[in-house]
Design goal:
2 strands, 49 residues, mainly alpha, flat, two-stranded parallel ribbon
Length: 49
């Protein structure tokens, strides 16, 4: 999972990973990760959004 607040970084990282054969990588904003942690959600729940 990519966690970054910069959409440009997300696009560049995802593009490079795709070219390297890693396929689509989920990306989340840091606040989504903090929110999930506070609510006690599992990391896996962020992959489903």
């Amino acid at each position: 999972m990519i966690v970054t607040s910069n959409p440009g970084c997300t696009l560049q990282i995802q593009g490079s990973l795709k070219k390297m054969g890693y396929g689509e990588m989920p990306a989340r904003h840091p606040m989504e990760v903090v929110d999930a942690s506070i609510r006690g959600e599992l990391v896996e729940s962020l992959f489903e959004k």
